[in-house]
């Protein structure tokens, strides 16, 4: 019995969300009196994998088969399933990303396992079951869910758990292969187009977001400069993407992407419920709007009632003055 | 082109969520149930594909009789026929098993569904159905075109997108800007009444998860307002008080 963590990597690095999954896996393993092993797929620096030891991972199974360079759900699931079998894992931890939840779903069907997504806290042991807390109703509520099958899969929501390092030990890296066939690679991507920008929206700890109050794309330098000064990613509301001021992959909300950064700064966004659905699990929300009745203020921790074009330059100046 | 579109019945997103006094059930009194918004992208894309390539669109819902109003709505929007698997959907795996069972007996080219439902936000059913059928799953997709036996899709990845070409049959989960959802017109509503809606009994299966209780998030303590004249103070508060930057 052990805990297996699927560690998502990109551009040769372990993603931050994967460190959260690793630490979560370590905590669960400690609760269960066992150890946490990770599986990593594709090209990633050995040091990155060894470093997982600091988050409580004892060993990393690393599959570098070249066909695995891009994500294909069937192939990845086969690799993870082989690692589950090798390690006799009863709990599998993944990040709640497109890839993580995609793998989790297939794996759950394959292993007849219980699967919980959007998990926001460590599980409670309840006999042979685990009880997890997950975010539901687009962030408007939580559910306690009991995972009853012998094998349990947990997808951890970004920024939901606090990560600490546990000593300085290095994880042992072991090469690993699963027997994959060409059929496992149907649906492999032909082309990958990455968004431009310094910080990825889905990975960002701080997000600066603009709405229709920005008036036009020519004013977006205010959002970009504030984001740059804070090391943040940029986002927008739906109408902004619909009229083409910003690309659709920046649109957050019920019909866009869901994010849960530590800090979300909403500039000239009214805070319609469909927008909130994508951002309401952010830890701290800042709202800048000239309308004191804007609904977003009800969800905010900090607010400034004022004109963007006067307020944001002051914020940029103050953020630039911060000692990093 | 034979397309199956899976729809789920969810509370309208503007619903204020509340629970029964034992926190075990959603209070549904006064709640309007709608077709899951992401499923509407799947439905309208399916209809567009049918209009350009020919074929049929079947909608499928796993649910009790109270979901039939929304199934009829999907028929009014343009689906040809519908299947309801008569089961209360308590768990993704249970739902996926029912969908896979229906699909096994019909030669669908495409199974489309939303990226997730806006009630349980599981984002699980598509992957599970694909695995149970042994098909590829392209999730979440923002574009889908079909020519002959091949689909070309754009799949959203964290921080970008990928272009994928794959042979049918496949499972696809849909999100914006896949299509523009349609509103049923009078003629659609009239013809929907006469379209076939088949009710089938569920195959046996076992839920793997149980929801024990719900809770609302803690109320925010209220917004702290900063004078716009000293807007820079916000940055200081975020560093020293919230300790977030
Ligand atoms: C089915 C459905 C799904 C939807 N999904 C989404 C979604 O995923 N994401 C999303 O964002 N929306 C979504 N919407 C739309 C949503 O309901 C709102 O229409 C949208 O969020 C409004 O965007 P906004 O706040 O940028 O614009 P507005 O509502 O126009 O608000 C602009 C705000 O800027 C303020 N403002 C203007 N000028 C200034 C200034 N100079 N200084 C300071 N403040 C200023 C105004 O006071 C106002 O509050 C959806 C709607 C539907 C029906």
Automatic annotation (TrEMBL), chain A:
<feature type="binding site">
    <location>
        <begin position="307"/>
        <end position="308"/>
    </location>
    <ligand>
        <name>FAD</name>
    </ligand>
</feature>
<dbReference type="InterPro" id="IPR001308">
    <property type="entry name" value="ETF_a/FixB"/>
</dbReference>
<dbReference type="InterPro" id="IPR014729">
    <property type="entry name" value="Rossmann-like_a/b/a_fold"/>
</dbReference>
<dbReference type="GO" id="GO:0033539">
    <property type="term" value="P:fatty acid beta-oxidation using acyl-CoA dehydrogenase"/>
</dbReference>
<dbReference type="InterPro" id="IPR029035">
    <property type="entry name" value="DHS-like_NAD/FAD-binding_dom"/>
</dbReference>
<keyword id="KW-0813">Transport</keyword>
<comment type="similarity">
    <text>Belongs to the ETF alpha-subunit/FixB family.</text>
</comment>
<protein>
    <submittedName>
        <fullName>Electron transfer flavoprotein subunit alpha/FixB family protein</fullName>
    </submittedName>
</protein>
<feature type="binding site">
    <location>
        <position position="289"/>
    </location>
    <ligand>
        <name>FAD</name>
    </ligand>
</feature>
<dbReference type="Pfam" id="PF00766">
    <property type="entry name" value="ETF_alpha"/>
</dbReference>
<keyword id="KW-0249">Electron transport</keyword>
<dbReference type="InterPro" id="IPR014731">
    <property type="entry name" value="ETF_asu_C"/>
</dbReference>
<feature type="binding site">
    <location>
        <position position="212"/>
    </location>
    <ligand>
        <name>FAD</name>
    </ligand>
</feature>
<keyword id="KW-0274">FAD</keyword>
<feature type="binding site">
    <location>
        <begin position="268"/>
        <end position="275"/>
    </location>
    <ligand>
        <name>FAD</name>
    </ligand>
</feature>
<dbReference type="InterPro" id="IPR014730">
    <property type="entry name" value="ETF_a/b_N"/>
</dbReference>
<keyword id="KW-0285">Flavoprotein</keyword>
<dbReference type="GO" id="GO:0009055">
    <property type="term" value="F:electron transfer activity"/>
</dbReference>
<dbReference type="Pfam" id="PF01012">
    <property type="entry name" value="ETF"/>
</dbReference>
<feature type="domain" description="Electron transfer flavoprotein alpha/beta-subunit N-terminal">
    <location>
        <begin position="3"/>
        <end position="189"/>
    </location>
</feature>
<dbReference type="GO" id="GO:0050660">
    <property type="term" value="F:flavin adenine dinucleotide binding"/>
</dbReference>
TrEMBL record, chain B:
<dbReference type="InterPro" id="IPR014729">
    <property type="entry name" value="Rossmann-like_a/b/a_fold"/>
</dbReference>
<comment type="similarity">
    <text>Belongs to the ETF beta-subunit/FixA family.</text>
</comment>
<keyword id="KW-0249">Electron transport</keyword>
<dbReference type="GO" id="GO:0005829">
    <property type="term" value="C:cytosol"/>
</dbReference>
<dbReference type="InterPro" id="IPR014730">
    <property type="entry name" value="ETF_a/b_N"/>
</dbReference>
<keyword id="KW-0813">Transport</keyword>
<dbReference type="InterPro" id="IPR012255">
    <property type="entry name" value="ETF_b"/>
</dbReference>
<protein>
    <recommendedName>
        <fullName>Electron transfer flavoprotein subunit beta</fullName>
    </recommendedName>
</protein>
<feature type="domain" description="Electron transfer flavoprotein alpha/beta-subunit N-terminal">
    <location>
        <begin position="23"/>
        <end position="209"/>
    </location>
</feature>
<dbReference type="GO" id="GO:0009055">
    <property type="term" value="F:electron transfer activity"/>
</dbReference>
<dbReference type="InterPro" id="IPR033948">
    <property type="entry name" value="ETF_beta_N"/>
</dbReference>
<dbReference type="Pfam" id="PF01012">
    <property type="entry name" value="ETF"/>
</dbReference>
């Amino acid at each position: 019995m052990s805990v297996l963590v699927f560690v998502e990597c990109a551009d040769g690095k372990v993603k931050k969300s994967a460190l959260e999954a690793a630490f979560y896996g370590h905590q669960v393993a400690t609760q269960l009196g066992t150890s946490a092993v990770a599986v990593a797929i594709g090209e990633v620096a050995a040091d990155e994998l060894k470093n997982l030891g600091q988050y409580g991972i004892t060993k990393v199974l690393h599959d570098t088969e070249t066909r695995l360079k891009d994500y294909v759900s069937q192939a990845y699931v086969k690799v993870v399933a082989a690692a589950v079998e090798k390690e006799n894992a009863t709990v599998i931890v993944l990040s709640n990303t497109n890839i993580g939840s995609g793998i989790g779903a297939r794996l759950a069907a394959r292993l007849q396992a219980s699967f919980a997504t959007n998990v926001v806290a460590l599980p409670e042991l309840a006999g042979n079951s685990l009880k997890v807390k997950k975010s539901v109703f687009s962030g408007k509520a939580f559910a306690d869910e009991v995972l009853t099958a012998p094998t349990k899969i947990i997808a951890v929501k970004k920024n939901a758990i606090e990560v600490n390092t546990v000593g300085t030990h290095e994880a042992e890296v072991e090469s690993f292969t699963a027997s994959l066939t060409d059929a496992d690679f149907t649906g492999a991507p032909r082309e990958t187009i990455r968004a431009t920008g310094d910080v990825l929206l889905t990975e960002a700890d701080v997000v600066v977001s603009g709405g229709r109050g920005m008036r036009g794309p020519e004013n977006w330098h205010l959002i970009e400069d504030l984001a740059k000064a804070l090391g943040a990613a940029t986002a927008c509301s739906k109408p902004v993407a619909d009229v083409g001021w910003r690309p659709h992959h920046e649109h957050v909300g019920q019909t866009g992407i869901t994010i849960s950064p530590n800090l979300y700064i909403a500039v000239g966004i009214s805070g319609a419920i469909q927008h909130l659905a994508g951002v309401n699990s952010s830890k701290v929300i800042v709202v800048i709007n000239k309308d004191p009745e804007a609904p977003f203020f009800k969800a905010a921790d900090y607010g400034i009632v004022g004109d963007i074009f006067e307020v944001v330059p002051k914020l940029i100046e103050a953020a630039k003055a911060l000692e990093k | 082109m034979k397309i199956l579109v899976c729809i789920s019945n969810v509370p309208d997103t503007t619903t204020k969520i509340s629970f029964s006094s034992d926190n075990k059930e959603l209070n549904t009194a006064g709640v309007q149930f709608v077709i899951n918004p992401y499923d509407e992208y799947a439905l309208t894309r399916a209809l567009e594909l049918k209009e350009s390539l020919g074929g049929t669109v079947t909608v499928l819902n796993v649910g009790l009789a109270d979901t039939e109003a929304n199934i009829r709505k999907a028929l009014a929007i343009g689906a040809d026929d519908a299947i309801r698997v008569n089961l209360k959907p308590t768990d993704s795996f249970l739902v996926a098993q029912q969908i896979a069972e229906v699909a096994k007996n019909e030669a669908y080219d495409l199974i489309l569904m939303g990226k997730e439902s806006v009630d349980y936000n599981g984002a699980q059913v598509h992957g599970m159905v694909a695995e149970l059928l042994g098909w590829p799953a392209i999730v979440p997709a923002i574009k889908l075109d079909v020519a002959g036996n091949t689909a070309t899709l754009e799949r959203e990845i964290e921080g970008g997108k990928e272009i994928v070409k794959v042979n049918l049959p496949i499972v696809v989960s849909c999100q914006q800007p896949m299509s523009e959802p349609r509103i049923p017109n009078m003629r659609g509503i009239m013809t929907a009444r006469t379209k076939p809606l088949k009710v089938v009994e569920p195959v046996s299966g076992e839920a793997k998860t149980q929801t024990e209780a719900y809770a609302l998030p803690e109320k925010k303590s209220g917004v702290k307002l900063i004078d716009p004249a000293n807007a820079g103070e916000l940055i200081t508060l975020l560093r020293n008080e919230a300790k977030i930057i």
